[in-house]
Write a structure and sequence with these properties.
The chain is an alpha+beta fold. Among the domains are: 30 residues; 158 residues, 3-Layer(aba) Sandwich (Protein Transport Mog1p, Chain A). The chain is built from four helices and ten strands; from the N terminus they run αβββββααββββαβ. A hairpin with a 2-residue loop joins strand 3 and strand 4.
Length: 274
């Protein structure tokens, strides 16, 4: 190679033309700066205490309040009413009057729906509840309790009374009585002729036949009619045919005597044979 000639020397097999490789310079890496935190300065301001919140009563506030409509006026807080002394006196008077009316209403209900006061009547044959104020009349083996009335005891209709009769029967007569009762005490015949065979028959008739402890029993009820088919009384009757005796219990009430009509079931059901 010619040192004065910058051109590359031709390459020969014996002397190859190899150019020297210059070394590659590596980039200079600058290390990151070291972080030096500043020292914490102690503050001279005292810490602020947290404000204590009052407890919330969840029961006193609704979970959701509906927005007020443009047509709804806000409701004022209720104020307890303090009555004046003059008003208190009026309240007391009204309270007494109300209690009196309630008492009268109970008395009326007792009279017309529970009937009249009853007492027990008893003899050697039977016992039964009868009206306390009715007059007693006895005739042989029959007894009648009648409501005290002026004159003949009738007020625009039949007399109000409770009557009980007892008769002795033999075995043959008993069979005949049972047959007669079954044949004649029917709803159709009582409606046509009445329970007593007089007047203009009966209406709203009920007939119930049964047996108990070897006794034949028939219970009848309805309205008795006069010749013009006008109700002149109410009746309930029970006939009991035992082995050697027959019993008849009758409750007859004037149309105006609603208290006795209301007591008819109690009187009939209270009858006990000794």
């Amino acid at each position: 190679m010619d040192p004065n000639n910058n051109a590359p020397t031709p390459t020969t097999p014996d002397e190859p033309n190899v150019q020297p490789i210059e070394p590659v310079q590596q980039p200079v890496v600058t290390p990151p700066p070291v972080f030096n935190p500043e020292p914490v300065v102690q503050s001279s301001v005292p810490p602020v205490s947290p404000v204590e919140q009052p407890p919330v009563n969840l029961n006193s506030q609704p979970a959701f309040s509906a927005p007020q409509s443009a047509f709804t006026q806000p409701t004022a807080s209720p104020v307890a009413y303090q009555p004046k002394k003059s008003h208190m006196k009026l309240f007391v008077i009204l309270g007494v009057a109300l209690v009196s009316l309630v008492g009268i209403g109970v008395a009326v209900w007792m009279m017309f729906f529970n009937g009249i006061p009853l007492k027990q009547y008893s003899n050697s044959e039977y016992s039964i509840m009868v009206p306390e104020t009715y007059k007693k009349e006895e005739s042989g083996s029959s007894v009648k309790f009648s409501k005290p009335e002026p004159g003949d005891g009738k007020v625009n209709g039949r007399e109000s009374n409770v009557a009980v009769s007892v008769i002795d029967i033999s075995n043959d007569l008993r069979d005949e009585m049972v047959k007669y009762m079954n044949d004649n005490f029917t709803k159709e015949k009582i409606t046509d002729k009445g329970a007593f065979g007089d007047g203009g028959g009966a209406s709203d008739v009920s007939v119930v036949k049964s047996t108990k402890d070897g006794m034949d029993i028939i219970t009848m009820s309805g309205n008795s009619l006069d010749d013009k088919k006008v109700i002149d009384g109410k009746f309930k009757m029970k006939i009991i045919i035992a082995e050697k005796k027959a019993y008849s219990i009758l409750v007859g009430a004037n149309p105006s005597d609603s208290s006795l009509s209301a007591s008819a079931d109690r009187i009939i059901d209270s009858f006990k044979i000794k």
